Prior knowledge:
Elements: H1 18-45, H2 62-69, H3 71-74, E1 80-85, H4 93-106, E2 111-116, H5 122-132, E3 140-144, E4 153-155, E5 161-163, E6 167-171, E7 176-181, E8 184-190, H6 192-205, E9 209-214, H7 227-238, E10 241-246, E11 260-264, H8 272-282, E12 288-292, H9 300-307, E13 311-313, E14 317-322, E15 325-327, E16 330-334, E17 348-351, E18 358-360, H10 365-369, E19 372-380, E20 385-387, E21 408-415, E22 428-433, H11 446-459, E23 473-474, H12 482-512
Parallel strand pairs: 1-2, 9-10, 9-11, 11-12, 12-22
Antiparallel strand pairs: 1-3, 3-6, 4-5, 7-8, 8-23, 13-18, 14-15, 14-20, 16-17, 16-19, 19-21, 21-22
Amino acid sequence: MSDPATAPKAKPARPLNRWGLGTLSVLQISFLAIILIALNYLAASHFYRVDLSRQAAYTLSASTQHYLHDKALADRAKPLKWIMAFRRSSPFYERVRALAEEYARISKGKIELEIVDPLRSSDRTQEVAAAYGLPLTKDLIIMDARTDAGPVSTEDKAGNHILNPNVKIVVADDMAVYTTAETQRKITGFQGEEILTARLVECVEGRARKMVFLADKSQLDVTGDSTQMKSLQGTLQFQNVELQAINLADLAEIPKDAEAVALVAPKYDFTDAELAVLEKYWNTPRSALLILLKPGETPPKLRTFLRGYGITPRHDRIISKDGDRINTTTRAVFTYGVDFTKELAGQAALFEGASSSLEVREGTEDLMNRQINPIGLIQAAPGFWGETKFGAKNPTFDEKEDNKGPLYLAACVTRGAASDDRFSASTSRMIVMTNTDFLDPLLQHAENTDFLASSVNWLVDRQSLVGPGPRSLGIYKLPLLDAQVSFINRVNLFFLPAFLIMTGAFIWSSRRA
Length: 513
């Protein structure tokens, strides 16, 4: 047992330095606040947006992003004004707001977005209504691309108000896709980006580009109920291109204000005078031709005209065989080497209906000497051949009579110094395709529409809108049995609350112990 006298004495406790501890705590809190403020400042100006939705519903398409970065917006001295007058109770409010904010963000300040709730901001709503002469009784977006202080609207002789060409209105109902079933009209889709981009282009350009359609040479009636023609008109309308029908037989020359000429499913051949009018137009700078051919039905003089520029439509049918079954639906791929298809290059495509092949004389010396450059755009996949005796019983590939790969369904021609940036805008351009069935809405695929839209924008020298376009979002139903619905309700109403209560009780009991 140790002696208490010899036991070591305990050291006296150090006095508590409250001033030092307080100073250290203040410094720590200050540094933490500075770090948080700096992080928030950096995050506000340097961030990366991620769209985690399954269909990338909040990510703008490549063509829209190209246009927002294009000089048509970047070179503007005065930003565009967007006024989104939407009620927050609108079923489209959140989706349209997210899209509009994305447009403004990607434009880097060239689109100024203002969101107005007509129910909560009545004073501002009245100001907007008075400024634009519009009763804001519907959810809408006003796009104002005026570069001067011109009037918002003018009156015609009948006293009707006409909006300035650089002011466009997007109504919420236009963004919805409706279908009618059993006399009931239901919303089955959402096409917000298509409508917003189309109206944006319209208000920036102030007018529609004009493409004339040679109605007297086509099997399709531009004024009739042809679904293929309506589909073509709809695609062009979204590109701010207006299709106007003309009769070539009545003209001495193509109208000067036409930025492109469309020849779709030609049925009747050209006369010498009509062909001279077409050749005269093609030989002028900045001419543009869109030629969509029925497979194997190219009129002789038109075929001769195309052959002179390196593209010859063949009298065949692109087919393949799967056992004893003949397959006329062509699997194809977009080729490389052309700017307006570079974002589609390498992607697979499906063309239903009938297709024939094109002979494309790429890189031949006689054409290059004339500054004519034909290029294949869409090539059939391996396994297909051009059957020259289509309709015969049990066709098989005959190396002597049939056409083997590469088989092109579409090709383009440039005439002029297309590779020289100084003269590229003055080159003449042509698109030739040997399938018109892809215009049918029942046979149409997204890649077909993207190719057609990119081709039209390339023809009218608007490369900023080429590439994959917007996608309509559909509404899908989740089929659930009554027993499954009942189980989900029990989980939400009883099991989850019970689990949370038991967890809370366990934590409370542990702390008391």
